[in-house]
Amino acid sequence: xxxxxxxxxxxxxxxxxxxxxxxxxxxxxxxxxxxxxxxxxxxxxxxxxxxxxxxxxxxxxxxxxxxxxxxxxxxxxxxxxxxxxxxxxxxxxxxxxxxxxxxxxxxxxxxxxxxxxxxxxxxxxxxxxxxxxxxxxxxxxxxxxxxxxxxxxxxxxxxxxxxxxxxxxxxxxxxxxxxxxxxxxxxxxxxxxxxxxxxxxxxxxxxxxxxxxxxxxxxxxxxxxxxxxxxxxxxxxxxxxxxxxxxxxxxxxxxxxxxxxxxxxxxxxxxxxxxxxxxxxxxxxxxxxxxxxxxxxxxxxxxxxxxxxxxxxxxxxxxxxxxxxxxxxxxxxxxxxxxxxxxxxxxxxxxxxxxxxxxxxxxxxxxxxxxxxxxxxx
Amino acid sequence: xxxxxxxxxxxxxxxxxxxxxxxxxxxxxxxxxxxxxxxxxxxxxxxxxxxxxxxxxxxxxxxxxxxxxxxxxxxxxxxxxxxxxxxxxxxxxxxxxxxxxxxxxxxxxxxxxxxxxxxxxxxxxxxxxxxxxxxxxxxxxxxxxxxxxxxxxxxxxxxxxxxxxxxxxxxxxxxxxxxxxxxxxxxxxxxxxxxxxxxxxxxxxxxxxxxxxxxxxxxxxxxxxxxxxxxxxxxxxxxxxxxxxxxxxxxxxxxxxxxxxxxxxxxxxxxxxxxxxxxxxxxxxxxxxxxxxxxxxxxxxxxxxxxxxxxxxxxxxxxxxxxxxxxxx
Lengths: 378, 329
Prior knowledge:
Oligomer: heterodimer
Number of helices of chain B: 10
Number of strands of chain A: 0
Order of helices and strands of chain B: HHEHEHEHEEHEEHHEHEEH
Order of helices and strands of chain A: HHHHHHHHHHHHHHHHH
Largest sheet of chain A: none
CATH topology of the domain at 45-104 and 143-302 in chain B: Alpha-Beta Plaits
Radius of gyration of chain A: 23 Å
């Protein structure tokens, strides 16, 4: 408790000390490297509730600081799979909601969503197979159905989801006349797409969120300490997929009303994501340092600048402003379109960097013996 | 000879050969699906590694490497201690740690004042006999400086996170209740590697890209022989046997050490409910587990699945509901 108050006092006094620097910053952009690092450190302490204490940490026992855990073997393939899988799942969910509850003008969103879902899904199995130590044995994944193992459940979920995503997209293609006019196409077009959308979206929600649960069910302190990674990945799946759908919709031209619905959805998903991420940092505490800290090997600079600042907070604020003052600018479609496009691209950037920083910081976290041992104390 | 014959045979009967080839390919494909009758259950077997007896000879490391035909690692000086292996890996299944504790502050209560030889020197000179050492004053326990050694190994957990995580069913419990990676099933997904809270199981990136770890010498157990490391251990620091009996032995040994004044001795993996159960290869340690890089109470990864799923479902419900609200006419 006392330490806490001390940290708060120190924070306050350092803010006061920083006032001249703030002036400097205001007058002389770009920001000096030092004060930027300082700001990020302050943000890390504030969000995680933990200020690093090297002296205290050096007192903790470990075996010559050799890692307690083995490093994850997951690299760019998995980062891209998390991103694309999230997009595929989110696009399916958005399209299904638009199809089941939307009006006639939302048809464009349904169509775009279902096509994008399948498109984003196609590289996923390839990425997953490539990531294996022995890709030719990928079929062994289908030997067992193991409720305890998120990866096993994920494989089955992904498999069934791709079935739904594929059939739904084919039905959509048949209805759009892309498959010609022969009897087969007519038969496909007659299949009940809306009926498939119900179990399909359930599976889509699963695919969008299980990746976070999979990371939580490990021994890596950063991933496992808080239990919120699944919720964060799911909301990011929805925010990035609304962003992707609205990018495409803007490019091909969709009604302003539908876009407005997407914007509201995007803002909400970003909001849940921000809340989730802040709760994640608070719960993870010291173990979140590899993600938010600015020390060597720590991913704070990327996290705060690109992931949180540029990819999450900025688009959320811009979107919020656009929604608040949206009524007046609806007439000026061009202006609105440009800004909307920018917001969506930022959201996509943020979604990718979310996966990237969390996976990469997980590698750093697994190498940190003292924090691993701290995380496992009684 | 046999291969050549069958090849020419196939060439002669092209049609039959192709069909046969197809059948072999098919049987190979479905081979991993075949479920074999499990071997009759045996009593659970495990290790008890008593670090108070370890002399750091590394015979276990060598015996393990030799029996399991594991390649020697590239020699590298660690610069921290006599331990240059540093950690367990895909090709190191026994690993001896050297923990140098020089100039440490003793956390133990001060030792009883022991009658030292100095005040008996005159007496000894007088009658020409060497005074007997009082009981419980063996040398290492006089000094706070010490050199701990521990032969680390797979813990063969009762609830093994690697086994629970494995999505192919490659990691199984054998009839001896040990945790074993089936090399013909594993596809190197790497989930067990991050699931293990002890950093034991690893993927062999220089070799076959599959997960490897201590098998508790399953092949030797099948023939009723004890594992190579336990066989080689010259001080019986590594004991192999039935888990039940080993635990009794561990408790006895702990009592004996406590009685003799080694208050810092403690058991790891016995009676401490690590990972909601016991560790079938347990340890007697002379310091807190962290000094040996052992987590004192690691989370069991599968226990995270339910809460993480609940939070995910909550997020899904909120966002799904909001989506419906926004899209409704």
